[in-house]
Design brief:
Number of domains: 1
Strand content: 25-35%
Oligomer: single chain
Structural class: alpha/beta
Order of helices and strands: EEEEHEEHEHEHEH
Shape: globular
Helix content: 10-25%
CATH superfamily: Nucleoside phosphorylase domain
CATH architecture: 3-Layer(aba) Sandwich
Strand order of the largest sheet: 5-8-7-6-9
Distance between the termini: 25 Å
Number of helices: 5
Number of strands: 9
Largest sheet: 5 strands, mixed, barrel
Amino acid sequence: MSGARRRAIGVVGGSGIPGIFEGGPRKSHKVSTAWGAPSGPIEEGEVGGLRVLFLSRHGVGHTIPPHRVNYRANVDALLSLGAEAIVTVSSVGSLKEELPPGTFVLPSQFLDFTKGRPTTFYDGGRVCHVSLADPFCPDLQRHAVAAGKAVGTPFAEGKTYVCVEGPRFSTRAESSFFRQWADVIGMTLVPEVTLARERATCYACFAMVTDFDVWAERPVEAKEIVETMHRNADRMGRLLAHLLPTLGTVPTCACAHALDEAGL
């Protein structure tokens, strides 16, 4: 992230997040990309004087399932409008007793168990191997930790997110397997995080625990997830309202150099 004041920060999340805009969204952008259409229009507004671009990952009315989200178009569209960093909000299930519903998690690693999604911008014409050893922007994470503490919603840090294809939930055997290696489980982190790295863009994921995954005996219910999401929406809104204005003048990090040694 550059030391100069940013033109914009991209935010990807659910339908409740646009409420963070001061005075409401000011513009709505319909964007086309080389990868097709993004999930929906990108809403533009301000938070603490910072230009923010919001995209609802699952479209208006939550009509796009996780395995059908056009992640390449979403990332490309945000960057085409000037986003120089992307923060995302995702609902996840918990794989650990110490992460009950309502916990906010800041993943530092991920496991990819998706199956049929386009995962790269480099499908031909150029070979590119980006490093994902440390997938998330350390500057964004540092500011997120500070914002969480400031608003009384601290993050559980240093956790591993296992991303599955969806839209179904896990079997008991899968859930028991995943909890040996990860802390939370979701369906949307990959390939968002890898695509941001391929564009040398800072990226962070703010995960909200909505349920205990099925390892905890009781089957996961979509109704329970939606109810917990709604209860957490105000807390996440307050956190973003505090966090986003602090991202206008973030010191330089290594994300901008992700492609320096990635080509062959």
